[in-house]
Amino acid sequence: MPITLVHLHGSHAGRKDRSDRDVVRLGRKSDNHIAFSETVVSSYHAELRAGSGGYVLVDLESTNGTFVNGKQIARETLQDGDRIELGKNGPVIEVHFKSARQGGGPRIVPLSGSWEPGKAPIELQGARTAIGRGLKNDIVVGREPGSPVSGSHAEIRLHSDRCEIEDLGSTNGTYVNGNKIRAAQLCDGDRVELGENGPAFEFRWQGGSRTERKASARESERLFRKLQQAAKGGAAGDRTMMFLQAANKYYKRRRWPILVAAGVVLLLAIGIAVELYRKDLQLKEQGRLAEAVFYQMRSVEAQIVQQRDSMSAEEFQSLRNKRMRLEQDYDRYLESLGLYAGRSPVEQSIMRLARRLGETDLELPPDFQKTVLEYVERWRSTPRLRSALDRARERSLPRRIRLALDQYGLPREFMFLALQESDFDTTRVGPETRFGIAKGMWQFIPRTAQEYGLSLGPLKDVRQYDPSDQRQDENRATAAAARYLAFLYSTKAAASGLLVIASYNYGQTRIIEKLDQLPNDPRQRSFWYFYRNGWVPPETRDYVMYIFSAALVCEKPDLFNISMAPIDTMW
């Protein structure tokens, strides 16, 4: 849905910006979609995000706050004509767009509960619409305390000729017309509840509502009762008696064929139900086996990295062969489950990259692919990725980093940590923090640098490039980074590459402390579990998503219409 931004006050006063993007980022840095010069505006201040309910304005933890019509907000659904202010007395923008809630397309009409977009009808625009309490959903509902709505509760899937709803493993279930469902096709007028007696909405498509169908049903019911009363000898008019006599004649002629046909249909239905039940059990069992094989594979991967220096060549090769057999078994299970069938090349690439980074493609969070593509769009909107890779290629950095990672059997995608930390700039100096000043391409803080054999320079406490500081020696720092990443990879994160990336930003101590609070279940010791439970802070989530999306783009840039050489040509 296009949005028009009219700049009323500030450095762009008098200008109009029109955008069809799903995400429009506002801030002071040049890689924002709209960049401002005012100091009251943070580097990455706020985002406008398109959803099923219209545009939502999200404050990105800015220093001076974001305001809508004078009221400070963290997240707000925008209405046509709303005024946005970036910081008190900062730039003011007026938004204009046609409401997505008008028209006769498929839509939901909130009936009860607390809906963030309000109680107006919400048109379903995308192929998939996520509904739940979490702010990452397309439609946010039930944010009040004690709500039965789960963080990711349900998903509506829109096809050309039908619409389906699926419960996403919610705590309190999803109900369609009073019946608890796992998945169901929605018809015009169906009533959906998120949790028993939870927020409810009515599904509408092609006009009309269930009320009209109920009126028709009531008319049929009245006629049936009249016929029933006449059959028992009660009073009846000429029209009712005519219907009754016709029904009796028809029944006498058709009774036996109908009974035989009903018996055949019943037997067929029982046979089909038994076969479907058997296949469902078989698929569930294959899913459990595939999951068990995956976590076995991850355990072997961690063992390979952890014991690489202490094991013999024969032992190392034996573990490599074991991991290869497990991966072959896992691929066979996925093929029998049809996990990749019907998915686009982009979706398949996201799933495979997640697996290479230690997360099972069987449990991809519902919103993960959409979020990844939002970050891909951020890379597309700025020359930063291409510039950083050009800098790295000039110094043959991709090949040198790949060799250092291969020495410990680590995922090559860890190279993109240096992209996010410094844009492959070995002269980079970070801000002053309570942990000291981070320096170099891998942005080591003093303590971690010394733990992994790097000596600090005389300017360690000064925000200045120091050629005598080994953190700013790209070869020594890369070797130390590989050792540090191998340590993170083989600790309690148990070969979850995404958890390793999160640890590099958030701190391995905090990640491991959280892991220690969990039961010894590998399904919970994963990035997916942290992601679903909201245990990853926004800054770290951004960090992980930027790295994941950069690795995805660089693997197959043509999938995203980006003209650049794939990363494997730089190894």
**What would you call the shape?**
globular
Strand portion, in percent?
15-25%
Number of contiguous helices: 14
Q: Give the averaged pLDDT, no decimals.
A: 83
Low-confidence stretches: 99-103, 207-218
Distance between the termini: 41 Å
Helix % is 40-55%
Which class do the helix and strand fractions yield? alpha+beta
Total number of β-strand segments?
24
Across the major sheet, the strand order is: 2-1-11-10-7-8
Largest sheet: 6 strands, antiparallel
Q: What is the radius of gyration computed over CA atoms, rounded to a whole number of angstroms? A: 30 Å
Please tell me about this protein's structure.
It is built from 14 helices and 24 strands. The protein has 571 residues and is an alpha+beta fold. The protein is globular. Helix 2 runs antiparallel to helix 3 (313-337), helix 2 (238-306) packs across helix 10 (474-490) and helix 11 packs across helix 12 (508-516). Strand 18 (174-176) and strand 19 (179-181) form a beta hairpin. It is 41% helix and 18% strand.
